[in-house]
Specification:
The complex is a heterodimer of chains A (245) and B (306).
Chain A (H helix, E strand, L loop, with lengths): L2 H16 L2 H29 L7 H9 L1 H8 L1 H15 L2 H5 L5 H39 L7 H26 L5 H8 L4 H11 L7 H25 L2 H6 L3
Helix pairs in contact in A: 1-7, 2-7, 4-7, 4-8, 5-7, 5-8, 5-9, 7-8, 8-9, 8-11
Chain B lengths: L1 E10 L2 E11 L4 E5 L6 H8 L7 E6 L2 E2 L3 H10 E4 L11 H11 L4 H14 L15 H13 L5 E5 L7 H16 L3 E6 L2 H7 L2 E6 L1 E6 L1 H7 L3 E7 L4 H9 L5 E3 L3 E6 L2 H14 L4 E7 L3 H12 L1
Helix pairs in contact in B: 3-4, 8-11, 9-10
Classes of the chains: A mainly alpha (245), B alpha/beta (306).
Amino acid sequence: MRLSKSWIIAKKDLKSFIRKKTILYTVVALPLLISVLFPVVLEISSRKSGGVSAAALPTLLPAFAFFYVIIPAIIPTPIASYSIVGEKIEKSLEPLLATPTTDGEILLGKSLAAFLPAIVATYVGAAIFMTLIDSVTYGKLHYLYYPNWEFGLILLVLSPLAATLSVELSIVVSSRVNDVRAASQLGSLAFLPFMGIYLASEIGLISLDTNTLLIIAGILAAAALVLFRVSTATFRREEILTKWK
Amino acid sequence: MIETENLTKKFGDLTAVDSVTLRVDEGEVFGFLGPNGAGKTTTVRMLCCLISKTSGDARIGDYDVGNEADSLKIRKTIGLVPDNVGLYEDLTAYDNLDYYGKLYECTVSQRKENIERFLKMLGLWDKRDVVTGSFSKGMKQKLAIARALIHDPEILFMDEPTANLDPESSKVVREFILDLKKQKKTIFLNTHNLDEAQRICDRIGILNTKLMAVGAPQELEQSVRGRTTVIQLEYVNDQILGALKKLSPGNLSSDDKKVTIEVADPEKQNPDIVEAIVGAGGRVVSVNVVGSSLEDAYLKLVREST
């Protein structure tokens, strides 16, 4: 596999996405909103009613942090859907498949184009989030809560795995539908399990400590591996030209 | 240059292409004629290594179709103009070609040179910075041809390149194909258009799942047995028709003032026909011999195969 070929495909797709306002808003607005919203809510509540106690903060903040697993699960969906369903609609897959490029190189290019913006947006959002949270909690905690090991684990392991899973699911979904919006909606189901984990932690069913995060990472890795097999089997040129509807 | 032997493709129980054996030489324009669903696109897709063959052999130059290691080399050697142009409508004409130039591993200078050359040849140079979404069908088709040529391939596969184009755009595309022929490119042309095939193809293959016939357009025309003699008369009566039937020619049809007869050898048979008409009291106004056309040959072969 030649990474240079995949990069040519990814670069072209990224160039196209920059022109799509709906995709651009998802990539920029979602992480920015979440990164600013939680610290602002904490700050406002502490100004009005004393806010969350110093003892409760270390329980509350990991739940907030889990949104940096949810964000990379959401962002790749519209990008990957547009990238593949868009090509189906424009009927541009056949000339692309006729180039001296392997199926794997095309698939990797398409995946990178969806994965990279999600990860970059998540990391930029996380940097803003950590800075703002530290600034609003330092007065109560008297130490900088972020960065910490759990958040490191989320950003370096769980976020990329969530983004990978979302990309793979979008590829499989895109092969079966002919509408970018439908593909995007179906693909966005990828974030539901993560939302479930977040809610479970909020109501105290689970604690998002290092051990729980490692278990989640293991499950994500296994699911990503299964979906990788399914998506590579789906993204074969003969399959695309003869079976994709 | 292109060779197939018993090339077959099955989709489940359906045989899309059945034991096709053909050879296309270097610098030849080969037309592939056939009705919808005849297997033309499937054949091209197999030869372009886009789909697998079920059985048989095929070679493009020195490479084996179906050999995984040769697939990339084949795709580097060929250019494909698919039946759907499939351009990136949010990219400019230049960016579309530049993207494919990169995928075909052209150097920066090759890309620059070829993009300019082909866009100028096809009259699109002034539109190079316009997004292709705003292009007409004809312009898109021309750009798709330029895209297939960006890496200067030796062999060009074209699937219905003039379908849905207005007569003027079709003419530009046909003339461009003839230009490519002068440059000794090998062209495999799928088409429904008999007139187009007759004008630009050196040889034609008629496909209806099976390859029904291969030959130069004139050879195929002549392969349809017999020609037609059309005789205009002052009047046609039973005596004249009776006299003609005694000659036992081929199919005979008539109206008030015209007799149409299928003849195998007009030069030998027409004098006897005229003599019989005159002998029966008929008065001949004119005698015309109408040769069979490629259309006759095509329709006959396709009908025979169904």
